[in-house]
Amino acid sequence: MRRTASRLAASITVAAIAVALPLPAAAQPSSQPSSPAPAKPDSMAKPPPLPADFPLPGGTDPDTKYNLANECIGSLNQGTDLKNKPWGQLQLRFDELHHFATGKGQVVAVIDTGVKQHAYFGGRVLPGGDFVIPDKRGLEDCDGHGTEVAGIIAANPPAGSDIGFKGIAPDAQILSIRQSSANYKGNRPTAAKPEGEDLPAGTLETLAKAVVSAANQGASVINMSVDNCRPVASGPITEAEKQLQAALRYAFEQKNVVLVASAGNTGEHGCPDQRNGIDPNRPTHIVTPPWFSDYVISVAAMNRNGDPAEFSVQGPWVTVAAPGTDIISLDPATDGLANMQVLPGNKQVSIQGTSFAAPYVAGLAALIRERYPELTAKQVMERVKLSSSHPAAPGGRDNLVGYGMINPIGALTTLIPSEQGVAADPALDVRAVMPAPEQKDWTPMRVALVGAGGGVLLLLLTLFVVHTVRRNRPGARKEVRGSA
């Protein structure tokens, strides 16, 4: 079935419709109430180092009991064929790219709202766990977000079909871990209400546990299209953020997993309405997981004109950018495709968000790991950065798009000296010496001026003599006489 589908919930309540937004699971509030002391704004561009003995979060059970509060999403089912290739797919040259790698043998964990066993996955979705309803094992997607994200990574329509859409790593396996949902709610304590209130599923603590679980299950890449935004002024690093930092460090350093996260969307789930401050070293808000950039590739969104998407949150942690507008992916309510979502008021808009830029990079990481299995997670991260189309900024990086739009062909074919054991050229202390000021010799100019002046004077003298001679020649002047 090839249909344009919306992500409209069957229920007409505002809460149900809200799950159609690009990041239904983006808000990851901490379940631990706290009142931290204010922090200096310039101290939050990078997180503080984590103690080596900080305990690793563990467990696979939900943090509370969750119940379905809104009906799961449905489809507009308008029967519109989507046969064209998305612009992002053309921009990243999938047809050439898959001559080098297809993601075969790679397991990409999608920590999200769950992933449906869509027909275009061909049975490659593995149950990884469920922090919402454990019995579902991550294979239910009531919100639709996780299925769309996973489709960009690994969807593969049947051979011979006239469908243009395809995932960037069409032979990769998806390990689905449901960590969040806007349609399931449970009672959790908060700083405002220590006694608890009904909140959507998903916290930083369960995200940390999901990362550890995915790493222990053998994922080579983890995609996290979920974000938590908070003001810098709210305080220093929290205990929940430390748990996530510990989980990411464990997955990256000990389990050798490539970690990819969306950069966040402006105006959503606590993220700023603007681009997060004018000083690159003084963000007004921090976004996690991207904040932990030592371990995470943070992905901004680009539009089809090659400009940063206006909704993409900037920050010193942004690593690279990828297509994030006019998205086509799997319809989570049917076995077809979707390119639209429905907002409150029945307004239909195209699918967009940094949530959908991140899976392009996660899929690219899977391709790199297939083609270069000897590379470490850090080397894969460096390959992605070095091969990107750098912006015209000092060091080839800025806070909007990081090191620029990813270049998958370059990432799979570029020769990187450090991978061959070739040390980088040492920096040279070269002093810029300006040449001494030139001492102008004006003698030739003086001679020329004197000569020219003499020539002019001689010419004037000659003209005067000639004129005088002509006036004094016999017959040159005749006397005129009158008659009487």
Automatic annotation (TrEMBL):
**Where is the protein situated, by its record's location annotation?**
Cell membrane
Q: Which GO terms describe its molecular function?
A: serine-type endopeptidase activity
GO CC entries: plasma membrane
In Swiss-Prot or TrEMBL terms, this protein is called: Membrane-anchored mycosin MYCP
Keyword annotations for this protein? Cell membrane, Hydrolase, Membrane, Protease, Serine protease, Signal, Transmembrane, Transmembrane helix
Which NCBIfam families does the entry link to? T7SS_mycosin
Query: So which domain of life are we looking at?
Result: Bacteria
Which residue intervals are annotated with compositional bias (Low complexity) in the record? 25-34
PANTHER family listed in its UniProt record? CEREVISIN-RELATED (PTHR43806:SF11), PEPTIDASE S8 (PTHR43806)
Answer whether the UniProt record assigns the keyword Repeat to this protein.
no
Gene Ontology biological-process annotations: proteolysis
Q: Which organism is it from?
A: Actinokineospora auranticolor
